Amino acid sequence: MTGELTRSGAADLAARIASGEVSAVEVTQAHLDRIAAVDGSIHAFLHVDTEGALGAAKAVDALRASGGPLSPLAGVPLAMKDVVVTQGLPTTAGSKILERWQPPYDATIARRVKDAGIVMLGKTNMDEFAMGSSTENSAYGPTHNPWDLSRIPGGSSGGSSAAVAAFEAPLAIGTDTGGSIRQPAAVTGIVGHKPTYGTVSRYGLIAFSSSLDQAGPFGRTVLDAALLHEVIGGHDPADSTSLPQPVAPVVAAAREGARGDLKSVRVGVVRELGGQDSTGYQAGVLASFESAVGSLRDLGAEVVEVSCPHFGYALAAYYLIAPSEASSNLARFDGVRYGLRVGDDGVNSLEEVMSLTREAGFGPEVKRRIMIGTYALSSGYYEAYYGQAQKVRTLISRDFAAAFERVDVLVSPTSPFVAFGIGERIDDPMAMYVNDLCTLPASLAGTPAISVPSGLSEGLPVGLQIMAPALADERCYRVAAAFEAAVEPVLSSIPELVA
Amino acid sequence: MPDATELSGSSVSSAGGRIGRDDVAHLARLARLAVTEQELDVFAGQLDVILGSVARVSEVAAGDIPPTSHAVPMTNVFRPDELRPCLPREAVLAAAPDVEDNKFRVPRILSEEV
Amino acid sequence: MTLTYEDVLRRYEPVIGIETHVELGTVSKMFCGCATDFGGEPNTQVCPVCLGLPGALPVANEKAIESTIRIGLALNCSIATWCRFARKNYFYPDMPKNFQTSQYDEPLCVDGYLDVDVDGETVRVGIERVHLEEDTGKITHVGTSGRIHGAEYSLVDYNRAGIPLVEIVTKPVPGAGAHAPEVAKAYVTELRDILRTLGVSDVRMEQGSLRCDVNTSLSPAGSGADAGRWGTRTETKNVNSLRTVERAVRSEILRQAALLDAGGRIMQETRHFSETTGDTRPGRSKEEATDYRYFPEPDLVPIAPDPEWVEKLRAGLPELPAARRDRLRAELGVSAEDMVQLTNAGVVALVGATVDAGAPIGEARNWWLGYLAQQANSREIDAADLGITPAQVARLVELVADGALSVALARQVVDGVLETGQDVDAVVAQRGLKVVSDTGALEQAADDAIAANPDVADKVRGGKLPAVGALVGAVMKATRGQADAAAVRAILLERLGVSE
Q: In CATH, what number is assigned to the domain containing residue A124?
């Protein structure tokens, strides 16, 4: 029974809870048991809120018993990335500098999840302040990929992706600044979507790069991800960059796509991302991508190759813009108002204590990016670095605009590689950064993109990325759902974890 | 495993020499990081490679290209001048490393206010 | 060798510039809904946004934007059609985020001017820019000195953090010569009157809602408007009263002249004015030049004021002090000399407002140049900061005109208003201050005074009329000043059988 519950998807669990076939408490307890059994080897969670989760589940069961209206995901468990501020629950963003911090408020999306009766199981591991592609940059140790415990689960939302792939939770929330939802989804064999910038509130996300950060859903199916997307999306007056628009009809699009018809859908293969101008991609990844494109064609889609000549500059632009904004966003961690304080011995000055605190509280990748950003914003360098990067951003948006005049969606591999080994790239920052090659253009343009499993290479999952124009998130879901229905489910071949 | 230089559009400048130990020390001071001697060397090498690579942005964007600061263009997002509840003071001070007289206590400050 | 100011000004040409920070009087803060009230218990007016908690995001206060545009319009500025906030990055514990959300190369208002009168001459002060930013928290230094130097530690209260702050920056003002200190003071006075008239701030320098930094440089006499020949400027901070504006400029002119005369060089630096010593002292020198690493604030979207909105705000501006002065002069017949006197005392706007509230111009003038000016002087503050409003003064004038108060009683009412902050009628009622017009009571008091002072009474009877003053005093004392002195005198003379 318990094993069967954790294998079920969110849509299925919600329906069974609503019908009374199982209680929310049973579903929650099954997932808590699973976490207790396997998280010792996965380390997806930084904090498990057993009491809070069971309390929320009980409330759903009570509401159902009293005949109250249940929202579509009521009683379904969820794993929350630790970058999302949760009132009274530890929130560290994977950093030592926030160890033991208990926020006095809730992020808008945390509030929306709770209000929807979704049961938050706990907070998931991540690269410190979302900086990384492997979850190795967590101050609390790495998360292990449930497909192969010696490999990374992707990052920065690797705790969330691993939790969903390891059946510890049917749903999770991640954040994506340069690919931090899509790449972990790809390398763990699940679905992850980065919504259009401005359509999911950033209020209460611990900021990495304000103009790029966007929260989004993880699920084992496209429909599950869509159901969660509709809970967290929509306008929030507390976020000035939140668009005053209703959330895109992604659930309807997922259901429509599942009927498997992509006739009259024009799909563009990006020549520079997995198309004919691609070097440096693993052969197995390219093979899986070619086969995926074939499947789309089989579903009736018209496939053409398009060129986006400036996508090749996305990596450079991203690694200027994101660190620049981060250097400013992370300045507040200074040991004055909250968090770690180091070196306050009664002799050291405030300046020394601040510097010692930040030195001790931040890991090497965070320090590197703070210094890159500090450099790029310095007078004398601003125009050549930050200013130019913002112009590249304009060129990338223009490439997208031109491409979307010809096609409805663009496709590429989500990542050039399958999950690599823990420790393999940690000492070579540039080798780590190229993980984001395929995901960065949509981040810089603020456009939506989804990763859906496309098959296996060397026994490890590969993801297909589907990109759409701004505010057309439903196109990602429709095409992804059609594709999902047409291919062998990847997760069915995940090795059973030995508890 | 492919490395950065093999990937399309990400050729790393091998020019080097942009960033030395002194530059790292200067950046660390600006960013309030008490980096160690050993870190000065490691970061100098790494930042040099990274900044050499990202400097490619200057190859492409011409002067007449407008910069994008916000991916989705919007203007005039305001809130009305209305009161909202503040945090209870216990919650404000609960996380503080050091408190005295309901204020945040900090060690002696060397620099002048700006 | 002692330098005289006159001597210095024969040889050097001062150029001044003034940066003014004004806390706006909005109900809530710039980017969140916390209260802006002055004097709250420490750290009770804060929320995740103004405390800079991880994850919190700003949303701009529309009223603050509107107020800034109105200030720009009143200062004859152009209003930007599109502009952004920027982050000014530096570490300081009074800033919860370790950056200040401000404006950099895209201010809301640019290129205006303000005409000020100094000794009957009009000087045009150019306005470089008016921009909007957020205030910082307040630091208390704890230790023997109570100052930053030698403090053992410091305490931070973030109630003030995030209050909307408008920065108004003048262009350099050359050519004022010996009048430079007066021009500086006249500019701040006029600016303050404008801000008060606009109703955008309570402009109380002593509470810090209006703060000035003054830039001063000297160049050789005759350099005039040739910016290339201007000397190195210093920035004097801590200029927190109108008097200080003038004193700080004068003392900095003298200090720089002495240094230049001795063959020294002026360092570009920040200096602090000391009220006690009356001169400026250097700030602690910085280890390296500050690099604020400005960039557009990604958490806020650009501001693009609708031209129709701007025109509506322009049309809705109140009558500004200069226009009011012209009207006072023209309509109410205030003489040119009176106007200079009123201007120098900084009470033009107050007199105008008192007239607007119903008082005759003569009475309004007499109060503000007379008793109220004395009270301000004795407290070493400006009349505007006394805490009595033009409407209250107009009410006093009305009560005196009605005979309900004597002038002496009205002054007591003023004292009461200043002490308690209560309204005029409340003070009158609470202290029982009214003219005693009950003749029976006055006659009784007169008889008592005569009985108690037989010697004085005899003198008066003997023809020494001025001696009756002592008896009048006694009666006034007995009636706590509430009698009309002329009436008391008449009654006393009558009871003593003496005629004038």
A: 3.90.1300.10
State the sign of the Cα–Cα–Cα–Cα dihedral C483, C489, C494, C497. Answer: positive
Residue B88 lies in a domain: no
Taking only the tens place, the pLDDT of each residue in A367-382 is: 999 999 999 999 889 9
pLDDT tens for A417-446 read 999 999 999 988 888 888 899 999 999 999
Taking the Cβ of residue C254 and every Cβ of chain A, the question of whether any pair is shorter than 8 Å is answered with: no
- Give CA–CA dist A326/A328, Å, rounded: 5
The answer to whether the CB atoms of C302 and B104 lie below 8 A apart is no
Number of domains within chain C: 3
Quote the CA–CA distance of B72 and A210 in Å, as a whole number: 13
Q: Identify which of A98, A211, A332 has the shortest CB distance to residue C97.
A: A332
Tell me if B78 is assigned to some domain. Answer: no
Q: Which of C28, C85, C89, C91 is most worth mutating to test chain A (most A CB atoms within 10 A of its CB)? A: C91
Task: Tell me: do C307 and C394 sit in the same domain.
Answer: no
CA gap A157, A132 in Å, rounded: 9
Q: Position of tokens 């009356």?
A: C278
Sign of CA dihedral C214, C215, C221, C227: negative
Q: Percent helix, strand, coil in chain B (nearest 5)?
A: 35, 10, 55
Per-residue pLDDT tens digits for B31-81: 999 999 999 999 999 999 999 999 999 888 677 899 998 888 899 999 999
Nearest Cα to A365, choosing from A432, A438, A421, A440? A432
Which residue among C257, C285, C311 closes a domain?
C311
Span C289-307, pLDDT tens digits = 679 999 999 999 999 999 9
Report the distance separating Cα A76 and Cα A28, nearest Å.
Answer: 8
Report ipTM for this prediction: 0.96
- Number of C-beta neighbours around residue C111 at 10 A: 16
Instruction: Determine the distance from the C-alpha atom of residue C120 to the mean position of all C-alpha atoms in its chain, rounded to a whole number.
Output: 21
Q: Which two tokens stand for residue C110?
A: 């640019």
Nearest CA in chain A to B2: A280
Rounded to 10 degrees, what is the CA torsion of C466, C467, C468, C474? Answer: 130
Residue A159 belongs to domain spanning: 2-259+485-493
Copy the structure tokens of residue A114.
């709770």
Cβ distance C388 to C426 under 8 Å? no
**Rounded Cα gap, residues A416 and C183, in angstroms:** 68
Domain-embedded: residue A390: no
Domain limits at C98? 5-311
> What total number of domains does chain A contain?
1
**Residue among A23, A133, A180, A295 flagged as catalytic:** A180
* Residue at A22 is within a domain: yes
- DSSP E strands: which ranges in C245-291? 270-273, 280-282
